[in-house]
Specification:
- The chain has a six-stranded antiparallel sheet, covered by helices on one side. A six-stranded mixed sheet has the order 8-12-13-3-14-15, sandwiched between helices.
- The protein is α/β, with parallel strands linked by helices and about 375 residues long.
- The structure holds adenosine-5'-triphosphate and magnesium ion.
- Magnesium ion (MG) binds next to helix 1.
- The site of magnesium ion (MG) has 5 residues, from helix 1.
């Protein structure tokens, strides 16, 4: 599967854009602030309905406009499919698949899996647990429809429970207890799935780090929940219920839910030491790359199709050996979109790619590619 074409209207610095892609390798070259990342962002929206960098959808609508849209045509084995996402300032975004409005935005998940590599990936290692949970959840959501229900129900329950706790209403306890059971049920399912997928991620990340470093380091990804997971879903649910009951006073005092998978972390360990604390800058960067490569491998395995690879500004950061490694890896996979300021950063790959120049919200094809 690949994306044949993209159409943008009032999206970021694109008034309107129509571009046809190469089925394998696409390079976007240009000076800073011309609109290269915006293209990758639009593609990522077709994959997940969300941006990988904007806090709010509204930010993606062109300044001074009330609405914007992203439209992509996908080539699948069964035929072509059109995905259209409409963004509005004053109402929710709308999703259309081949002209048919979708009731749920989540119906897009897994249709066009994608992995973004960006310099911000370093925060996956250096930042707080929230970013790592998001990385893990987004990986699972793209490949497992069953996870979506538990994940969404958990989030919904947590929100309602937190809002109750914040209001500090009289006679709170019985109202709170109503939410304990769904929180524990969906929480247990979320934790077990996260744990299962983390193990697979760890295998892939370990292999990726070996490939990147020539086998010098042992990398482990460990799901680190608050509660021990032994014993299966029923037992875990009971443990969560017990923990919620033990935390009653604390929760009421602090006005927030303190028990559950929204507090878990994904630990990153190199040679038995936490990468976040003891890793050098270079080790942390390599660790982040390995995590993204692991995501790519896992999604390729779990989605039965090679994900889109969106490679934003990362090439220039890599040394020659790693550049070669990445380009080789990309050639084995599906369609890739790479940005950079100079073709020189892409060495041999630039011969095999379709090359576009990007300038002030306009894209021009410079080389058609094979
Ligand atoms: N909502 C918006 N409406 C109009 N223009 C926008 C909007 N959001 C961002 N821009 C503009 O888009 C440009 C940035 O585009 P983008 O991030 O794609 O640049 P880039 O080519 O990737 O640059 P760099 O090489 O620095 O990463 C900026 O000039 C910014 O002002
Ligand atoms: Mg950019």
């Amino acid at each position: 599967m690949h994306v044949c074409s993209l159409r943008l209207s009032h999206f970021r610095n694109y008034q309107s854009l129509e571009v046809e892609f190469h089925p394998q390798l696409n390079l976007f070259l240009g000076f800073n602030a011309q609109g290269k990342t915006n293209i990758l962002e639009a593609l990522y929206c077709l994959s997940t309905t969300k941006s990988f960098r904007a806090a709010a959808d509204e930010e993606m609508i062109q300044f001074g406009q009330e609405a914007g849209s992203i439209e992509g045509v996908l080539q699948r084995e069964e035929g072509q499919e059109q995905i259209r996402l409409e963004l509005h300032r004053d109402k929710n975004k709308a999703l259309f698949v081949s002209g048919k409005k979708q009731k749920k935005l989540s119906s897009l998940l897994g249709r066009l899996p994608a992995v973004v590599f960006s310099p911000d990936d370093l925060f996956l290692v250096k930042g707080g647990p929230g970013l790592r949970r998001r990385y893990l959840d987004l990986t699972i959501l793209q490949m497992d429809q069953g996870y979506l229900t538990h994940f969404q129900q958990y989030e919904k329950t947590l929100k309602q429970r937190n809002s109750l706790l914040r209001q500090r209403v009289q006679n709170l306890e019985p109202q709170l207890a109503v939410w304990d059971l769904p929180l524990a049920e969906h929480g247990a399912a979320v934790m077990l799935k996260r744990s299962e997928i983390s193990k697979r991620l760890s295998e892939f990340a370990g292999q990726a780090l070996k490939d990147l470093t020539g086998g010098l380091e042992k990398f482990e990804v460990r799901y680190e929940p608050q509660l021990p997971l032994e014993g299966g879903e029923g037992i875990l649910k009971d443990k969560l219920l017990q923990a919620l009951s033990n935390a009653r006073r604390e929760e009421m005092a602090r006005g927030v839910t303190v028990v559950g998978p929204h507090r878990d972390d994904l630990g990153l360990w190199v040679n038995g030491q936490p990468l976040r604390k003891f890793g050098s800058q270079g080790q942390q960067r390599t660790g982040a790359l390995a995590l993204k490569l692991a995501q790519l491998s896992l999604l390729t395995e779990g989605c039965h199709t090679a994900p889109l690879v969106l490679f934003d500004d990362v090439m220039a950061e890599l040394d020659e050996k790693r550049q070669a490694f990445f380009l080789n890896r990309l050639q084995q996979g599906g369609q890739a979109f790479l940005t950079g300021t100079s073709a020189a950063d892409f060495s041999a790959a630039s011969k095999k790619a379709r090359i576009f120049s990007v300038e002030s919200g306009a894209v021009r094809m410079e080389q058609q590619g094979p």
